[in-house]
Write a structure and sequence with these properties.
With 309 residues, the protein is an alpha/beta fold. The chain contains 11 helices and 11 strands. The strands form 3 sheets. Strands 3-2-1-4-5-6-10 form a 7-stranded parallel beta sheet, with helices on both faces. Helix 7 packs across helix 11.
Amino acid sequence: MTLLITGLHGFVGSNLVSAFKENHTIYGLSSSTEREGAVKTCSWNELDKLPETDVIIHLAGKAHDTKNQSEAKEYFDINFGLTRKIFDYFLQSNARKFIFFSSVKAAADFVESDILTEDVIPKPVGPYGKSKIAAENYIISQFSIVNSQLKNVYILRPCMIHGPGNKGNLNLLYSVVGKGIPWPLGAFENKRSFVNIWNLAYIIKQFIETNPLSGIYHLADDEPVSTNEIIELIAESKNRKPKIWKINKSLIAFAAKAGNHLHLPLNSERLRKLTENYIVSNQKMKTALGIDRLPVDVRTGLQRTLSTF
């Protein structure tokens, strides 16, 4: 097939180009330069120069700024504005499928129940999640046109993605363990969902080559993993013994409250984010694609990623 990938220079885009370049013809849409593996890359002002494609994979966007230094307008200009622009192009083109990478943060900043499913009423917090849900809502508002044209649209909400070239929180944790700094929150057995880039590429391949119903799908590995387990895997990858301190939870909570007033690195909000559960269901996606289990289990995926650091 012929694929158009926006944001193909990013972490996910680069990995998808590598995964698909042997079996598909790839074109790019980017503000950056040409990329190996893509036949041609056009700028956002050159939509009229794009060749006809079968599938559009829209990755381009402004990533979540954990330091909260970005303006809300910047998120909406990119995450909503560019999505509307490329989706309008899709409706006017002969492309049959549109795959939009949203985020679980469009659904919820934290999981109120045991597990996050697609049935949740979206309650995004902050401009990143709100800009993503605005883009989702615009796409959904055009579904009558999509259906009349016999096209398919997939809104994908991945949780934290990791793999070669990953620059997220996993790198920070890797650095902490590498410096021999003990993890002081071992008493909190919180679990989080991840999706490794190998499973992600496999999932996208299935959406490209099969015809599930249009809709919203959460993307995650088959099992969640605890922070303690991740630290153990990092230590194992560095041939070190993990240093996990299981300090009394009440004492940690007291220290975090003190941090609220003294502006210390650990405060109540940061403690919540470091110790909360964030488990994402991938069952709707697997049912739609006819998958029993994803090819790479969570532990193997993390080990592969850590081997590239």
